[in-house]
Amino acid sequence: MQILSSQVKGYMERSSWIRRMFEAGIELKKQYGADQVYDFSLGNPDLPPPTCVCQSLHDIAEEAAQPFAFGYMPNFGYPEVREALAQHVSAEQGVAVTPDCLVITCGAAGAINTFFRAVIEPGDELLCPAPYFVEYGFYVENHCGVLKTAPAKAGTFDLDVPALEAAITDKTRVLLINSPNNPTGVVYSRQTLVELAAMLTRKNAGRARPIFLLADEPYRFLAFDNIEVPSLLPLYPYTVVVSSFSKNLSLPGARVGYALVNPAMPGKDELVSGIILANRILGFVNAPALAQKLLLKVLGSQVDADIYAQRRDAMRQVLDAAGYKYPLPRGAFYFFPEAPGGDDVAFVNTLVEERILAVPGKGFGCPGHFRLAFCVDEDVIRRSADGFKRAMDKVNKG
Fold first, then answer.
1. Structural class in CATH, domain 70-298
2. What is the rounded CA–CA span in Å between residue 12 and residue 20?
């Protein structure tokens, strides 16, 4: 007797490598002790939230006795949160944003799904560069769309705009980019994004439906060496920005994010209304009330990004000493090195023998590499050095 749909059964059989390695880590930690396992598998920020979060939670608790303290609200979120967020993203994006451009969502994932539900017809294509966050494929298939990819530039993982242009078809509805990028840490330059916007403008000519540019930006706050993370809103009118406060506030479990529709977009109001409706009919209803109340009090705060910069330097030293090849990440908290020997799955298994957990590049649509998340204590990174060296030596010895 068949219990699951064939689609979900297929998803389970090729389930996320990130989760597989995370679960493997649980078993290793049971066997050897948590301090003897070096877990770089999951982008789960370990820094405590800013100190203002704790006090704000106490303040919110005192409000809990009021009628409807956490009751239903408009599907787009609390109006006062949209107002404050509009001011925040206006400064961040360098574009005047009004509250009617925003929908508060259940994290960036909720924002992506509500946007897809609002604009995708069955058979429409989502195009993104590879490597990419694997959940994108699941999200678009949730709404009967199809994921298509084009390779990023070899070695640097920068956007290959001609490759993306060649991959666009009559069915392309959305082009999705993620900068700073998971899994590579690349930050796309202004010059590259201007080129991308010009290409999309050309491709839109004569189309009945525009190609949307969806910018997934939860790592915007985490760019190293004073590198610029350019805003796409001034470059292309059909831009939608999605983000969350999972990483910059270390609140991934709070599930609060937003969809921001470009104020300059023709048909902006219709799209925002569609996203609001999708937020309800997908069952999200609204972003969590507690998280929204918290966000209103702590908006503008963030964790200490310098700690991640120090960890990046530590990870670089460990990998360099062992002879790994990689592009230095310019943002986010991931390295994406080449897999010694070329087989990323085999090499990740070799790392497991050293109690090091990584994720094969195959899980991100880019075999031959592996991902390391350095959102762990610096001591863990430095103590993993011998294991990384032994794994490299095993491959070199054949």
1. alpha beta
2. 11
